[in-house]
Amino acid sequence: MNPASDLVDPIEVDARGLRCPLPVIRLAEAARDAPAGTWIVVLASDPAARHDIPAWCRMRNHELREMTEVAEMTEVSDSSRADVAPTEGDHPAYLRFVVLIRPQR
Amino acid sequence: MLPAARATLMAALDAGWADPRRLYAEGRSARTLLDQAREVLAQGLGARPAEVSFLPSGPAALRTGLEGLRYAGRRRGARMVATAVEHSAILTTGRYHAAAAQDPSLFAEVPVDALGRVNLSALEQAVAEGGTVLAAVQSANGEIGTRQPLEQAHALCRTHGIPLLVDAMASLGRDPITEHFDVLAGDARSWGGPSGLGVLVVPERTRWRRPGPISDVEHGRTDVEPVVALALAAAEAWRQTEANRMDQSTLSSATIRRLRAAAHDLPDVDVVGDPDDRLPHVLTFSLLYVDGEALVIELDRRGFAVGSGSACTSSTLKPSHVLAAMGVLTHGNVRVTLPLSPIAPTLDDGVSRFIAELPDAVAAVRAHLGASDL
Q1: All domains in chain A, ordered by first residue
Q2: Which of A21, A28, A47 sits opposite B291 (nearest CB)?
Q3: Which chain B residues are Cβ-neighbours of A21 within 8 angstroms?
Q4: What pTM was computed for the model?
């Protein structure tokens, strides 16, 4: 089992600042043409993503390997997105998901 | 509201307008009418009239029920237990008390399974903890339809000497009356009565006391005088709904089965809740790649009024706590609640049209987001 830090060429989907259901749609777009075994890393700040990305993985038979809360805007790969406003209340600034694409029936 | 309840309400505005506490003839007549309404509902709920109080709404009755159990148990502690899918009147009050005391352990939210049913061993663990003064479990969830195992919940609460508060707002008038409670709250709307009337049942055996100054209104369980006409209309609705409940339940179940099959046929759908042990009149499903707000508006444009638990349809932009607790998809959520037959005599035609138009409505909303071929 690969630890998530050793991902081989992951596809990154930065859905921070997007409202539901757009983070899941961006993820599904990335997954559409990805061969089995592809790793996808999704960043999302919408509160519904916490529930909906795991639900997508279950419904589409992909594997959710990791879900981490990222409290601050660290590890921002695209600096133009650093100004995305964090969501209010008790939600973390964003969530980071690691998804493994499985073969589809 | 049932047509017969509406007629009663209009007539009662003339006959029962006076203050039932006054001694003049109109006041006495209003008192008599209020007592009659109470008797009808008490009999229906398997309680004595003195055990039944009218409150301004179901949620108000529920919150009052909670506060009275909490206050009555204050010498034993202040810890409260509730399922994670209870009404927000319970959850917000419980969280408020825990936050006010700066002690998160004072409110325990018990997890549910993927069907929305409470985990009984987790419930037992929670009520066994010292300082617990009450547990709140709903009879069924009005959002997803799943019934809760009240008999077992009540038995295990009793073993630990913890009173059980039952929210029956979703099931009264739809499901048989339960006897498994120590305090029960309901809302007249659920059995075809008017808005603005809740009922609170506190059996004599239950230790219950309203915090604050002693009141002489509604057996001391509120300080808001009930509107006599609303109570009469609620009693009339109860008579009618209870008389037809079995037939209504069979009819609603058959309609929900049709709707459920139609929902299952949609691409990328999560049909939510227990398929069998559920309320007869509620169906909930979530659709991948669908904006819940857009779908509600699209269906409204086509003449269908549906609810939604998706974040974008709520004022707080947070998804439904019920869907979240179950771990099901929260976006693209649609909730169909069937009205009672006397309220909607042409329901069957509407349902057929809904089933025919739903795939198209969903496809239109998906296409709008460029999500047609995911």
Answers
A1: 9-100 (3.30.110.40)
A2: A21
A3: 288-291, 331-332, 369, 371
A4: 0.91
